[in-house]
Amino acid sequence: MDINQKVTFADTVFAQEVDGEMVLLDMNSESYFGLDEVGTAIWQAIEEKRVLKDVLERLLEVYDVEEKVLKKDLFAFLEKLQESGLVEVEKN
Fold this sequence. Notes:
By secondary structure, the protein is an alpha+beta fold.
């Protein structure tokens, strides 16, 4: 994964914020996914920014964490979303 890649949500995923956390429904698998507060912040940053570099910058404004730690966590989170078919990361 590269920091300059763009993230898009799968067309079959519907997201709704409930009590500060995101609930996702994948219409393909008919599965629900719940995101905690941090996962919700990442999802919302992706909605707003799309490019991973901008998402990372947005999250660094919110969380007091080292950039390399946040980047590692962001990429790990995105890999899980990709594996579940919820997002696509643009290929370089």
